Amino acid sequence: MAWLDAWEAFVKTVDAGSMAAAARRLECSRAQVSKQLAELEKAFGVRLLERTTRRLDLTPGGEVFYQHAQRVLAALKETELAVQNLVETPRGVLRISAPVTFGRLHVAPLLPRVADAHPQVQCELVLTDRLVDLVEEKFDVGLRLTDAPPENLVAKKLAVIKRVICASPRYVAAMGEPRSPQELVHHHCFAYSHGRTVSDWRLATPSGEVLTIPIRGKFQVDNADAILQAVLAGHGIAILPTYLCGAELARGELLPLLGAHEPLPSFGRHLYACYPASHVQLPRQRVFLQALEQHFSPVPPWESSDR
């Protein structure tokens, strides 16, 4: 439907701020977008955009058309998804986003099972610690470690994420074990930097008081796997999620410290599976969500005594 492509090109141009940006999102040339917009203006007999060398502005007619076009395109998408949902057999490309370390350990191993159980589903897992836009980047499901999933997403809580202050026996033997949070200022402590300098840890006491403890360390890193390896090598103390270090704790390769104090990192305490609220749940999406729920409930595998 050529008219539908033109309407989408117009909306994408307005949203992106330029025809070049719209062309990138639509995976076509700028010339194609320009031609579609010109054909729209010819069909309506009115200018929709005022073009300058630096920006595009909606005309009054363009503003009216933009509002209506948005609603029409959204309704068409909903209709398409609703019809697809009538097909009970899961099929198509299942696009999933997950944080790097968690996704590597606990999402990637699920994909062969989903693919084996549903031969017409192709799984695509994107591992990134960047907060992706599930709608704009066309993901079916996003795994989020957070306490407050976005309101525009449907969010299913899958597990509680526990974290522990820990160090290797080698480090404790060399530097001693901190007996109170305040003693952490005398130790080398790691933090997940994630693009910013981390200068303190927040810990909750047994009475509920929140302590802010300044920390120092030889280096910081934005990857939890790298922090785990540094701690195992005896270079310092870190706050790590048990989904990452549970096996090392169980084997005694790491020692839990200050167990009465709960770490309060900037990351959330819950794992959510999220998908756009505007989407009808597709069969491929549904079977993956079911697989997640079965895997993480009632107790996540890293907390299970049977592992």
Count the E strands.
Answer: 13
| Rg computed from alpha carbons, rounded to a whole number of angstroms | 25 Å
Can you tell me the CATH topology of the largest domain? D-Maltodextrin-Binding Protein, domain 2
Number of helical runs? 10
Gross CATH architecture of the largest domain: 3-Layer(aba) Sandwich
Taken as a percent bin, the fraction of beta residues is 15-25%
- Helix-strand pattern, N to C? HHHEEHEHHEEEEHEEHEHEEEH
How many structural domains?
A: 3
Structural class by helix and strand composition:
alpha+beta
User: Order of strands side by side in the largest beta sheet?
Assistant: 4-3-5-13-6
CATH class membership of the largest domain: Alpha Beta
**Low-confidence residue ranges:** none
What about the largest sheet? 5 strands, mixed
What would the principal axes of the Cα set say about the shape?
elongated
Q: Whole-Å distance between the termini?
A: 54 Å
List the helices and strands and how they pair.
Elements: H1 2-16, H2 19-26, H3 30-44, E1 49-51, E2 56-58, H4 60-85, E3 92-98, H5 100-107, H6 111-117, E4 121-127, E5 141-145, E6 153-160, E7 163-167, H7 169-175, E8 200-204, E9 210-214, H8 224-232, E10 238-241, H9 242-251, E11 255-257, E12 262-263, E13 270-276, H10 283-296
Parallel strand pairs: 3-4, 3-5
Antiparallel strand pairs: 1-2, 5-13, 6-13, 7-10, 7-11, 8-9, 8-12
Helix pairs in contact: 1-2, 1-3, 1-4, 2-3
Short structural summary:
By secondary structure, this protein is an alpha+beta fold. Helices cover 39% and strands 21% of the residues. 28% of the residues are buried.
